[in-house]
Amino acid sequence: MQNGKAIRVEKLTKNFGEHLAVQGISFAVQQGEILSLLGPNGAGKSTTISMLAGLLAPTDGDAFVMGHSIRSDGAAAKKALGVVPQDLALYPDLSARENLTFWGKMYGLRGSALKQRVDETLQVIGLADRQKGRIDTFSGGMKRRVNIGVALLHKPQVVIMDEPTVGIDPQSRRHILDNVKDLNRQGMTVLYTTHYMEEAAELSNHIAIMDHGKVIAFGTHDELIKLVGEQARLELTLNVEANRVMDAWQHVEGVSRVTGSDGKLTVLADDSNRVLPRLFESATRAGGRITSVEIHEPNLEAVFLHLTGRALRD
Amino acid sequence: MKILDIALKDLTQSFRSTFALGMMFAVPLLIAGLIYFAFGGLSAGVGRFNLPTLRVAVVNLDQPHQNLLQLGKTIPGFLRDPAMPSWLQVSEIADEASARAALNAREIDVAIIVPANLSDAALSPTERATITILHDPTLTIGPAFVQDVMGLFLDGVTSGKIALQVVSDQMTATGKKFEPTAQAAMFQDYSAWYAEMQRNLRHSTNPLLAVQAPAASANQVRRDPIADMMGKIMAGMMIMFVFFTGANAAQTILREDEEGTLARLFTTPTSRTTVLAGKFASVFVTIAVQVIVLMIVSALLFKINWG
Predict the structure, then answer these.
(1) Which one of A65, A103, A106 makes the best mutation probe of the B interface by having the most chain B beta carbons within 10 Å?
(2) Rounded alpha-carbon distances, angstroms, from residue A200 to A38, A192, A195
(3) A91-130 pLDDT, tens per residue?
(4) Are A91 and B13 inside 8 Å of each other by CB?
(5) In this structure, is residue B215 part of a structural domain?
(6) How much is the pTM?
(7) What number of CA atoms fall less than 13 Å from residue B155's CA on the CB side?
(8) Are residues B172 and B201 both part of a single domain?
(9) For a disulfide at A125, which of A149, B150, B237, B271, Cβ 3.0-4.6 Å?
(10) DSSP state of B116
């Protein structure tokens, strides 16, 4: 198992002609954890996943799924993997049960084992009561759930999910995220790609931030946040000149730095909840009044901005 | 096993598609059905392209002087011979005017006017007689048939005359007299022999002219020509729509590619060869089912004998 690593990616490279889609990336996913590949569209996340799933042959480098090389032992790697593609990949004119049964057979399940796994999967995705309904009669969220269920049928050790929540309603999104956490609690390793930083932050043990085919940062959520510092940035507007409060605010407990001019000030603080009441009080004592407040907590968006100079959703 | 799974899945999808079912079964049967209803009436409901009844009237004006030979009287019997086709209906009318009136009134189709001197001319080396055939100008096949039949009759008369002439010349050369009664008797004998010869020509158990059709012709006589025609049309329909079905089934590969299921299949431990073999198996089974169903249904609907 390669020292507890469910997935090990080594200098994986994929070129499409002169376009370098993935440029020699390396990272590892420990067994039983959720790793999110976070990055904007075109960062190379789906290409990386396509190589791991055996859909694209790497130009260079290799990757190992549960110790099986995707280049030399692709069939074993595929058996250990469940793949949830970004777009729905189901047969719309078959029922949910027929779809699951067919895909189960493609993973080598047969007979009573197949029936049992289909029943269990229908329970997991919450569609046991709609199992005979044709897929083309389902809502978008229900289709997404069946799409995920297909990847879970053969009880894979590793599940790859390629942006499974794109374009669905909040309720189905919540259901899917809860499903991912449940699966992970049961010991399943999940490689999750998304361009929603909230999902990455909520789900992941580790996050790999990708941009232009490279992994530009890798670590836990907290580790990545530390790259931009842990302090919150407060943008405040006053109805008086800034210099009337700046000195006083410099000495407010929890404030590390105050900059600004005219009626606008920027305050760096460890904990905005505790510092803000003190700033209001200090402003009042100085004869001024705070007319607006913007709080910028440190997040992955800020990390990406810090690393690339661009917003994550640019 | 996975090949069968893929084929079964494709078959399920195909047979759930109303469009595919329509193009597989309904459209070829519908087109064949339209052709059947358009041309099926030609068989007159009995399964054969029968000629309509030909009503022939014989006007026998033959009046032999010595009543030695009465050829005119033999003509109706000749036309009523069992070897003649069943659609030939023979009657007799007393005179030519009545025959013409019946023809104008479309009560008869053909009238054979036997001249008064037919028998006398048969026994005379110099006399000539003319049999006249009157017919409905709108008819072609029936009158032509009667003309051929009467040509056969006159061949017999002419060859009888030649035989009499030869015998007469030989008897004259030897100074013997050839009596009219002997001539008539000889002509009668010759006529009987000629009629027998004509019968034996094709219709006896030991015919002089044995016409044999291929072995299958015995069945073909009984086969419905419309069914034969429909068989060819239906076979053409099947070939055309089988191509459509094959193309449609092969198109499922492209559809799966567009819908992303093909890529997903490749993420499973299923080889590309297996996927392709499954698709081909599905095409093969679909076409086989289509052909079998079309053959059975068309045999029931259009009486096509696929054997």
Answers:
(1) A106
(2) 7, 8, 8
(3) 999 999 999 999 999 999 999 999 999 999 999 888 889 9
(4) yes
(5) no
(6) 0.63
(7) 10
(8) yes
(9) A149
(10) T
